[in-house]
Design the sequence.
């Protein structure tokens, strides 16, 4: 079990070295003045200059080893390009198995990158190895928040220990750990004095998710990857966590990637949406535009089937067909459209030719026949 860049826990085979680093001691709940610590956090975590990319993903490919086949591999992500500035939220959406978690894990260095590059704050993290990678993870500048806090939080640690653990990994002394853990808990609406001595099993689902969030921000990250942060929560806790994410990006300038199945959750919080289908990013753009005027037929299908986005079924999504089985993504010709087997507009080009990526302003869609409106100003880029 391991977790983030800074040593939480996740059930994977590629445990970051930080996972074996010493744990925080049994700190007492912190007594620091949260306002004072908050001021320090704000000073230490200056938002990236407007427009500066905190995360840049270029031509990313990830392949997992194929079980039982020596040297064999299964490509699960290909040609992914993304950019995210400080203080911005990117919603990453796609059906189960499309590669959302894999993309996030590639960014924190726990998925095997086979092509392209990932840059965080100007540092090429996809090329880091050995000591440089361990140092990067210990810095806590990139944090990954797991979708299942009950499984990802160590059941034996108290809340104070859980939140302070990434700081212990980073070598922060006990006194500062206590102060910063209390501030992080305060920021997510939890009282360290009241909850600091509890273990995860003694918390509600919403509290656990907020402890995960406190743990993720305690290192003052530049980039937070939140994997399905609200999918297990009821409506009130969901809204609370989404509001917290919004505050974090605004107050601390954190760049946040929110992974979700739920367009409704993303609609309220994300500045931009990226749509993943079978390991390919098929569309990206400002949230309102992607949701109301999807360009890629798969996005149209998503928006049409999301009740809160399009209840009428009369939007562009109504033109798409229901799901149908297709070839596995790795069997699709390199660059050809992975949605062609389901797309009502697909022609021979879509099944055989490299997908054409079109864009207009802030938007892009990897599609030979994007859904257009008369006002669209199109430019084919490849
Ligand atoms: N460690 C692994 N080894 C081999 N294959 C893997 C591994 N992890 C994920 N996969 C495969 O990679 C593909 C993408 O998985 P991933 O977990 O990234 O999808 P996802 O979009 O996050 O799905 P979900 O929404 O269900 O969490 C899936 O086919 C999955 O089975």
Sequence:
């Amino acid at each position: 079990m391991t977790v983030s860049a800074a040593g939480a826990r996740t059930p994977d085979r590629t445990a970051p070295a930080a996972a074996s680093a010493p744990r925080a001691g049994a700190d007492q709940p912190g007594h620091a003045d949260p306002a004072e610590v908050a001021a320090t956090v704000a000073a230490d975590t200056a938002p990236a200059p407007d427009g500066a990319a905190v995360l840049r993903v270029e031509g990313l490919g990830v392949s997992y080893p194929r079980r039982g086949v020596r040297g064999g591999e299964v490509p699960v992500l290909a040609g992914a390009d993304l950019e995210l500035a400080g203080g911005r939220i990117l919603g990453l959406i796609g059906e189960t198995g499309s590669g959302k978690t894999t993309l996030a894990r590639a960014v924190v260095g726990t998925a095997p990158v086979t092509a392209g590059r990932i840059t965080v704050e100007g540092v090429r993290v996809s090329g880091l190895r050995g000591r440089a990678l361990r140092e990067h993870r210990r810095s806590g500048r990139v944090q990954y928040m797991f979708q299942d806090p009950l499984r990802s939080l160590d059941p034996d640690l108290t809340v104070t220990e859980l939140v302070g653990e990434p700081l212990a990994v980073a070598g922060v002394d006990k006194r500062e750990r206590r102060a910063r853990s209390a501030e992080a808990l305060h920021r997510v609406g939890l009282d360290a004095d009241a909850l600091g001595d509890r273990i995860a099993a003694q918390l509600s689902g919403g509290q656990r998710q907020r402890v995960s969030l406190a743990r993720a921000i305690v290192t003052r990250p530049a980039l937070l990857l939140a994997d399905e942060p609200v999918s297990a929560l009821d409506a009130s806790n969901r809204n609370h966590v989404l509001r917290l994410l919004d505050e974090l990006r605004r107050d601390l300038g954190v760049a946040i990637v929110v992974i979700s199945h739920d367009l409704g959750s993303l609609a309220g919080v994300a500045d931009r949406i990226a749509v993943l289908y079978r390991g390919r990013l098929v569309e990206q753009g400002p949230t309102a535009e992607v949701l109301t005027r999807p360009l890629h037929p798969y996005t149209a299908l998503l928006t049409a089937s999301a009740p809160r986005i399009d209840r009428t079924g009369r939007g562009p999504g109504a033109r798409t067909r229901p799901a149908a089985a297709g070839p596995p993504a790795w069997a699709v010709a390199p660059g050809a459209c992975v949605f062609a087997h389901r797309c009502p507009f697909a022609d021979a080009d879509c099944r055989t030719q490299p997908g054409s990526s079109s864009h207009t302003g802030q938007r892009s869609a990897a599609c030979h026949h994007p859904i257009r409106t008369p006002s669209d100003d199109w430019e084919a880029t490849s």
The radius of gyration is 21 Å. Confidence is low (pLDDT under 50) at residues 1-50, 309-325.
